[in-house]
Amino acid sequence: MTTSHFNTKERILGAAEELFAQHGFAGTSLRQVTSRADVNIAAVNYHFGSKENLVNEVFRRRMDEMSERRLALLRKAQEDKPGDLEAILSAFIEPPLALTIDRHGGSAFVRVLARAFAEKNDRLRKFLSDNYGHVLREFAKAIGQALPGLAKEDLYWRLDFTAGALTYAMADFGLIKRPAGVSEKAHCEKAAQALIRFAAAGLRAG
């Protein structure tokens, strides 16, 4: 792919991500995307074919890298600290939270991710499940090994709740705001540690 093609595709993805964050998936038209990206509709059709594929690619652009990072950290945790629940949860929680301070549009994607949970979009949910469900299963397996006495149904409920709390924390809906004088990075790290402790306690609960 030539540099110009790459730049056009990235401009379209960036524009779509910002608009999906602001207006949702149903509320964003391809005309708005082309206007924001300063391209014509033919460019969108050439690179993506349809609005549905454009939505999917917005997720793939962020989720592929984040998923690889999560799984790499999980493998390292299992090698360095076998059976350590906090290390497993750190691998699950820290890469997504790091997106919130990503200067290259990560914060917009966080809002897009929140939209995916809030809007009923069965095709998108199927795409996410088909392409990234294996990540959740790997973590469920690792947590199950760390907590062998935890019933499988309870494990999945609690991991689901942890994922929900993580999404909430990423979207910055909560009561705790970054104090003046505290860097975004430090605030993000503190949030990650607090969530890891919370999730570990919930997973270990009787």
TrEMBL record:
Superkingdom of origin: Bacteria
Pfam family, one: TetR_C_30
Domain HTH tetR-type: 6-66
Entry keyword annotation includes DNA-binding: yes
Molecular-function GO term, any one: DNA-binding transcription factor activity
Keywords: DNA-binding
Database matches in InterPro entries: DNA-bd_HTH_TetR-type_CS, Homeodomain-like_sf, HTH-type_TetR-like_transc_reg, HTH_TetR, PsrA_TetR_C, Tet_transcr_reg_TetR-rel_C_sf
Annotated DNA-binding residue span(s): 29-48
Cross-referenced PANTHER family: HTH-TYPE TRANSCRIPTIONAL REGULATOR RUTR, TRANSCRIPTIONAL REGULATORY PROTEIN
Designated name of the protein: TetR/AcrR family transcriptional regulator
Source species of the chain: Arenimonas caeni
